[in-house]
């Protein structure tokens, strides 16, 4: 249970109970991470999260900071606070994401830019600001630094009712592999995890949007239908997905970069 011993991580989009980001933070702490900085633009669940983390993992290894991932100045501040608290940085998880449903005709340019700003630009800025510190990780760990992007199976799968999310995730996938080539010589590995249907607040919100749009009668019907699209006939939970992040953050994946890890129950086999 010490696969991430002495490692320090920043995880974006981790300020909401029930999402992948927070599940990743918990998994990192269970695996011995020295420090985990969870960030989010909204901190509505901050008190409950802080109490839960302190009770489960003790004091001093977890922080929750506000971060607008579209702001380079905000990124600089979070990185400075991380170093001040924990001394260094070894892992960056770009997990923050938003979705605004609509097709080409029904999506405004403003809404498209909002989605791209978080889902793509936020990953670009995080990578850019954190890379100098992550390059130093090779002095502490044989696997060097690690950047893990939550890119979603949406990066491969077309959806005429949610173009902003799917286009942004496709761009994030390409940014991942371009970054892997650029930062490989600095011993920074850059990989992406592509969850399928994972029962997070964002997904549940999306299912409600689809129900309102008439695609399904109830969210329960939507969940069942999505599960039926996978060979395993099931949807994922956030804690299931977190295991993939642990592997990519650990030195076990020291020879893995530019990889797209499908965590999708096999739904991607259809595309």
Q: How many strands, which pairing sense, and closed or not: the largest β-sheet?
A: 7 strands, parallel
CATH topology: Rossmann fold
Number of separate domains = 1
CATH class: Alpha Beta
Tell me what portion of residues adopts beta-strand conformation. 5-15%
Tally of DSSP β-strands? 7
The chain-level structural class is: alpha/beta
* C-alpha termini separation: 36 Å
Which runs of at least 5 residues are low in confidence (pLDDT < 50)?
A: none
- What is the average of the pLDDT values? 93
Quaternary organization: single chain
Instruction: Look at the structure and name the CATH superfamily.
Output: NAD(P)-binding Rossmann-like Domain
List keywords for this structure.
8 helices; alpha/beta; 271 residues; Rossmann fold; 44% helix
Topology readout:
Elements: E1 8-11, H1 20-30, E2 35-40, H2 46-57, E3 62-66, H3 72-86, E4 91-94, H4 109-134, E5 145-150, H5 163-183, E6 188-195, H6 201-212, H7 219-227, H8 238-249, E7 260-263
Parallel strand pairs: 1-2, 1-4, 2-3, 4-5, 5-6, 6-7
Helix pairs in contact: 1-8, 3-4, 4-5
């Amino acid at each position: 249970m010490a696969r991430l011993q002495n490692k320090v991580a920043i995880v974006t989009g981790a300020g909401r109970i029930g999402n992948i980001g927070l599940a990743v933070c918990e998994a990192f702490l269970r695996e011995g991470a020295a420090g985990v900085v969870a960030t989010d633009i909204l901190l509505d669940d901050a008190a409950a999260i802080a109490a839960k983390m302190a009770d489960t993992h003790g004091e001093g290894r977890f922080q929750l900071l506000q971060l607008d991932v579209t702001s380079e100045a905000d990124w600089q501040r979070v990185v400075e606070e991380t170093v001040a608290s924990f001394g260094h940085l070894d892992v960056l998880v770009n997990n923050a994401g938003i979705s605004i449903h609509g097709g080409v005709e029904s999506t405004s340019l403003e809404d498209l830019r909002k989605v791209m700003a978080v889902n793509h630009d936020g990953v670009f800025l995080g990578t850019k600001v954190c890379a100098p510190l992550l390059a130093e990780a090779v002095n502490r760990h044989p696997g060097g630094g690690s950047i893990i992007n939550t890119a979603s199976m949406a990066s491969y799968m077309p959806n005429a009712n949610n173009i902003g999310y799917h286009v942004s995730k496709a761009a994030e996938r390409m940014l991942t592999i371009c970054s892997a080539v650029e930062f490989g010589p600095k011993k920074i590995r850059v990989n992406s995890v592509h969850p399928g249907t994972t029962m997070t607040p964002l997904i549940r919100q999306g299912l409600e949007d689809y129900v309102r749009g008439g695609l399904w009668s109830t969210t329960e019907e939507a969940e069942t239908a999505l599960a039926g699209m996978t060979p395993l006939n099931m949807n994922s939970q956030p804690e299931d997905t977190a295991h993939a992040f642990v592997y990519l953050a650990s030195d076990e994946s020291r020879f893995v970069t530019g990889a797209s890890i499908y965590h999708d129950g096999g739904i991607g086999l259809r595309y």
